[in-house]
Structures are given as C-alpha cells and as structure tokens.
Write a structure and sequence with these properties.
Elements (H helix, E strand, L loop, with lengths): L11 H21 L5 H5 L4 H17 L7 E2 L13 E2 L9 H15 L3 H11 L9 H22 L2 H16 L4 E2 L2 E2 L70 H4 L60 H19 L1 H9 L1 H19 L7 E2 L5 E2 L9 H30 L9 H11 L1 H8 L15 H13 L18 H17 L2 H4 L2 H12 L1
Antiparallel strand pairs: 1-2, 3-4, 5-6
Length: 535
C-alpha cells in the first residue's frame, strides 16, 4: 500500500491573502449583527485593530467542520488549477503556527456554545458586556475572548496586516450597500485607519485624517452574509439577540478629538523634535543611561496640601509631550537593561518595538505616577491629571488602572510567598509580574505556555508554541480524547487569567499611544534609539 504524501505547507502570502479575505467578511458580518457600527469601522481607534482580527478567528472557529480543526482556503487566493486546500496543523506556515495552534485549541469549546453564549462571546470580543442570562458561563467566555484578543493584538502588530487593514475596513463599510445603476454604492464614510510608523523608516507618518461623522446605527434584522468563495461563512450568531437593543460601542473618546493634531509648536528638525531640545531622553550612550532626577513630594507634607509642582520645562510646553518624553525615558532604560529586547531587535524589529513600548508603559505606571494620579515627569516636573487635555485623560486613567492592578499582583504574590515560606515550602512560584514582563516580550505564546506548565512542556521556541508536545496536545484535545484539556485547564497561578488580561490591557494601550500624533511625531527618534542599541 502506497503511503499518502504529506500535504504541502501553504505559503505566507496565500495565508495572509486568505486571512484578509476572511477578515473583510468578518467585519461586514459584525456590522450586520450590530456588534460594530459604521462609525467604529470608519474611526482610527486602536481597539478596532484588535476586535477585527479576533472576530476573524471567532468566525473561522464557527466555520471549521473538521477534526482536528482546519480552515478551507478561498479558491481565489490559490494558484489557478490548485485543488481544494485547507489550512491545518500540517499545512500552516511556520510564521503562523503559534496563532493557529491557539485558535485550534479554542475551536472545540467555541463550537459547543449555545447561540446565546456564542453571541455573548462575539460581544465580549468587541468590547461589549454579555447580555444572556448564562452568568455561570460568562467567566469562561471572558477568558476565551481574552485569548482571542491576545492573538489579535499580536496579529495587529504585523506590518503586513497594518498596511492592508484600511482597505479591509473600507470593504466592510461598503459591503451590503444598495446597488445603484447596477453597481454597488460605496459608503459615504471612509475608513481613516492609518498604520503606525514603520519600524525601519525614519520619516514619521502624517497624522490620520479626521474621521467623518456618521448617522446613528438603526436597528435592523440580523443579516446572513454569504459568499460562494468562503464555504460556510454565513452562520448567523445573533438569532436570540433582542432586535430593539443594539449594543452601544464603548470607546475611550471620540476619534476626531483623540487623533486631532496638537497645537502648533516651535519649528522641528527632520526627526520631529525641537531644535533647542536636548536628546538626552532617548540617546543611549555606552552603558546604562542616566535617569533624570525626579523630585518626589515628601509624605510628611500637611494633609490636604501639596507643594507647588515644578514648572513643566519650556521645551515641553504641552502636557501630552511631557507624558511622552517621560514614557520615552522609560523606554530607553527598558531597552538598555533588557538583553532579550536587544536580541529581539536583530531578529524581529516590529516585535521588539511593541515589546519595548509595552514594558515602558508598565514601568511608567509603576514608577512615574503619584498617589493622586499625577505624573512625575522628566527633569523633576510634576503633572496633575487635570493638566492633561480632556481627550487624553482616559488614557491616563487607563495607565492608573494598570498601575493599581500591577501593584495588587505584587502585593498578592508577596503575601503568598510569605505564606509558603512560613509553611516550609522550599520552592516559590514565579512572581506574576515577572511572568507579565516575559509575556510582553515573548508575546501570546508565553500565555499559552503557562497553560502547559504542569505538563513540563518547554516553551523555548515561542514561534512554534511549545513544539511537538504542545502540537500533540492540541490534536488530542481537538479529537476529543482529552476533551477541553487546553481550554479548561485551570491557571493554577493565575486562576482568572489575570496576567494575560493585564498584558492585553498594556498592549492595547501601546497600540493606542503609538498611533496618536503626539507620539508619531517623535517616532523617528525612537527608531534611532533602537538602531543605536542594536549596533
């Protein structure tokens, strides 16, 4: 008997083309299901970068009808005359193996959900609260949404994704428009998404255009979107959703204001900084960079009174610029003291950049915030929350929330360590803050490595998850012989997925900040730092 040849590995290009085709229809279906409104699709908000890819993974899980899970590729992305092809554990290219294995581990659980639970999961992916009465399943759904959003965050960091996402959003906006003269009428709204600055280029991208205003979303009956090129795509998920209560998207603030240009500033050089401004915050001399001296108010000050804050330096005459320079000072120190980042700079600059920004946000939240929510800025300046422009205050509140949660984890871990030592334990668990920092550097693969820790699975190769052992585990789970072993395995050290949840919040905030004009205009200077460290 002749042995059947192993299927060929799909190329990166075919995989990406298929993903963007699925993504366009996933966004269109989310619009039809009233999970995303047109204003959100047209906006430049960072969360749409996360919700879109996560929805694509979700709908792909609903479509999969094989064991183990696989995805039928659209014929239009395959070479002419190519046979039907599936993206599977055997055919997925190495670049996307980690993402595929996470998706395939989640798929069996997603397919067992009731229509109401399925709709709740889609709502959670889009940042809405669940509306079903199955409160006992809400925590499981939240963890599924966390995992898919974690994968989506990493997908959104890929430059190839960023360069095509604007056209995906516009295609979703135009989808389903009534025809006129035999041709589909394009949406009056235009997708304003602009990719963050490139990682090799030194020229900052221009500020994104102002998002147009759209009409309020009118509740309509759920639509079934079908496409002969995508088998089984039209599965409807909101059969039980109340037609009279469309979800209200929650967003940080209006994209018009958040992405508006800052007030005019003195002339800048080609790198975006003022000609008289010292580059000490970002230039990395040999050895460890010196931190600016920070003046901290003594805790012995009279209650209810505080010393006057030092004046914000003249060269940093806007509050957001002060925050930016303080964050970038943290960024410089993070890069200088983290060897893993310096190694990553040579192999994967985009990953290194986002990892650096995520770590800088974490250190900024722990080191630069005052007890009352202000900022201890560079050169001893102190900035109060009310000094920050109103449209940027939600970002500062998110940093404060990250700081509170991080300190809570530190305190809980310290208490647990004391209890274990008192009980005579010799081995202490890895602190969750250490795990968080590793997850920010290594990415979502680190989070799923945590789920396999009790099986002694090595996670040294994060690109392919935990290697053959993890791959075998996923296949067993998908076949049902180890039903739910991956999806339902308790996080012994993080029972509610708190580390992954906090990593998601930090990464989402990093995506938001790096796309703001105030940060984009200094982006080229950051790239110089990265190049200098690598050299």
């Amino acid at each position: 008997m002749s042995q059947q040849a192993a299927p060929s590995v799909v190329t990166d290009e075919v995989t990406m083309n298929a993903f963007h085709k699925f993504l366009t229809l996933a966004l269109a279906q989310a619009k039809a299901e009233r999970l995303l409104d047109e204003e959100t699709l047209a906006s430049a908000e960072a969360d749409i970068m996360v919700a879109g890819p996560a929805l694509c993974l979700y709908f792909a899980a609903l479509r999969s009808n094989t064991t183990p899970p696989s995805i039928p590729l659209p014929p239009s992305v395959l070479p002419p005359g190519a046979p039907p092809t599936f993206l599977s554990a055997e055919t997925v290219p190495r670049t996307f193996k980690a993402f595929f294995f996470i998706w395939s581990a989640l798929t069996p659980a997603i397919q067992t959900l009731t229509p109401e639970q399925s709709h709740d999961l889609a709502r959670l992916i889009c940042g809405h609260e669940p509306i079903s009465q199955s409160a006992s399943r809400h925590e499981q759904l939240r963890r599924m949404a966390l995992d898919m959003r974690a994968v989506a965050i990493e997908i959104s960091q890929r430059r190839t994704f960023q360069e095509r996402y604007q056209s995906d959003l516009q295609a979703a906006l135009d989808h389903g428009r009534p025809p006129s003269d035999g041709r589909r009428t394009p949406s009056p709204l235009r997708a304003t998404f602009v990719p963050p600055p490139g990682y090799e280029a030194e020229k900052p991208l221009p500020a994104s255009p102002t998002s147009p205003r759209s009409r309020p979303v009118t509740p309509t009956s759920p639509m079934r979107i079908t496409n002969p090129d995508l088998p089984g795509f039209g599965r409807r998920i909101s059969a039980s959703a109340p037609p009279t209560s469309p979800p209200t998207p929650t967003r940080i603030t209006s994209p018009n204001r958040l992405n508006a240009a800052l007030p005019s500033t003195p002339p800048r050089t080609e790198y975006g900084h003022r000609r008289n401004q010292s580059s000490q915050y970002l230039e990395l001399p040999s050895g460890r960079p010196e931190r600016p001296t920070v003046t901290v108010q003594s805790s012995s000050s009279s209650p209810g009174r505080r010393s006057p804050s030092p004046a914000v330096p003249a060269q940093l005459n806007s509050a957001i610029e002060t925050i930016r320079e303080t964050l970038y000072a943290e960024l410089a120190e993070v890069i200088a003291k983290t060897k893993e980042l310096q190694t990553l700079l040579a192999s994967d600059p985009p990953r290194a950049y986002f990892a650096s920004v995520g770590l800088a946000i974490l250190e900024f939240s722990l080191n630069a915030l005052t007890p009352d929510g202000g900022v201890r800025a560079v050169l001893g300046a102190e900035l109060k929350l009310e000094d920050v422009p109103r449209e940027y205050q939600p970002l500062m509140r998110e940093v404060q929330a990250i700081a509170r949660r991080s300190r809570q984890l530190e305190e809980e871990d310290t208490t647990k360590a004391i209890e274990l030592l008192t009980a005579g334990e010799d081995t202490l668990p890895e602190p969750r803050m250490d795990r968080l920092r590793k997850m920010l550097i290594k990415g979502v693969a680190r989070g799923w490595e945590e789920l396999q820790r009790d099986q002694d699975v090595s996670g040294s190769d994060t690109e392919v998850m935990a290697g053959a052992a993890f791959e075998s585990q996923v296949r067993r789970s998908a076949r049902g012989s180890d039903q739910g072993a991956v999806r339902a395995r308790s996080r012994d050290r993080s029972p509610e997925g708190t580390v992954l949840q906090l990593a998601n919040r930090i990464n989402a905030l990093a995506l938001t900040m790096t796309r703001l004009p105030a940060f984009r205009e200094r982006q080229a200077q950051v790239f110089k730092v990265l190049a200098g460290v690598r050299a």
